[in-house]
Amino acid sequence: MRRTSGIGAAAAGLTACIFGAALLLSLVTGAGVYRQVESRVERSAVRRVGLSYLAAKVHAHDVAGAVRVGQFGDGDALFLTETASETDSGDVYETVVYVYDGFLMELFRVRGAAMEPETGQRIADMRSLEAEADGALLRLRVTDADGVRETADVYVRSGT
Amino acid sequence: MQERIRPTKSGLFSIELLLCVGVFVFCAAVCTGIFVRAEMMSRQSAELNTAVNEARNLAEAYQASGGDLARVCASGGGSVEDGELVLTREGLTLRLTPDTGTLTVSSGEWLLLRWRVAVPPDNWGVSP
Predict the structure, then answer these.
(1) Cα distance from A119 to chain B (closest Cα, Å)?
(2) Do A150 and B53 touch (CB under 8 A)?
(3) Nearest Cβ partner for A15 among B17, B42, B53
(4) What would the pLDDT profile of A30-45 be if each residue is shown by its tens digit?
(5) DSSP state of A136
(6) Is A30 near chain B, with CB under 8 Å?
(7) Which of B49, B128, B59 is CA-nearest to residue B94?
(8) Residue B24 and residue A19: Cβ atoms within 8 Å?
């Protein structure tokens, strides 16, 4: 009788150990999967936001002569021009989209006004932006915070 | 006459243990399945994002070229086979068929998306 109890206790202990180990393994696996999924979703969202933002900005300003590529700060920039309506003064404004200090930035100013790159508004994490016009096609190459390069080709219907 | 077998304490304890282990194995199997599904869905989602991005790039390049496949190939790579543009990027195969105006993106044998693409009328006044 005593011997049977000993075996029973050992079996119970062993089962408890296996249960604990498996539970721990399961938790660690779950946490790992969750971390991977979360980081992939975040990376994907950051890239999508940056590229979609750039494409949407260009399409929104797609009128003759309003989209041009140039230099601002230390790198390439997009200059999107818009003219105030007839009821207003008729001043010409421009939105400058560029990368500064690890961020995609946007700056709205009267065209030609001297403004520093750091005065812009942060849009998304981004390491670099290269813009190149090839006929009616605007090729934007961005490098995200993880160093991954992505390209967005945008058809400028009004021409660049 | 047969002797009636009475359940002993240790027998009951063993059955209880087996039941616990069984329930735990079932729960672990369900959890593992959920983890695997979550991982697969996340991969598929990332792949679909890439597919959408690449398809959009090709569609924009095609429209900007005024429907000239050779020009699209020259600027973005790929090749023209039987009047169809075939391009491989990021492990995805993009096929653009101007006759039907169809753009498909597939990963291996899996079709990820199918779009209709058309060159704008008169290219909106922009000469390609």
Answers:
(1) 31
(2) yes
(3) B17
(4) 888 888 888 888 888 8
(5) T
(6) yes
(7) B59
(8) yes
Q: What pLDDT shows up at residue B128?
A: 46
Is the ipTM beyond the 0.90 threshold?
A: no
- The CB density around residue B21, as the number of other CB atoms within 10 Å, is 14
**Going edge to edge, which strands form the sheet with B110-116?**
B79-81, B84-89, B92-97, B102-107, B110-116
CA A111 to chain B, closest CA, distance in angstroms equals: 26
The answer to whether A4 faces chain B, any CB pair under 8 Å, is yes
The neighbour count for residue A23, using CB atoms within 10 Å, is: 13
- Check pLDDT > 80 for residue A84: no
Question: What dihedral angle (degrees, nearest 10) is formed by the CA atoms of A80, A84, A85, A90?
Answer: -130
Q: How far does CA B15 lie from the centroid of its chain?
A: 45
Residue A81, both tokens: 């021009």
Identify all chain B residues contacting A23, using CB atoms and an 8 Å cutoff.
Answer: 24
* Integer Cα distance of B102 and B115 in angstroms: 6
Per-residue pLDDT band at A100 (split at 50, 70, 90): very high
| CA pair distance A97, B81, nearest whole angstrom | 39
Q: Could you read off the pLDDT of A4-38 as tens digits, one per residue?
A: 567 777 877 887 888 788 888 888 988 888 888 88
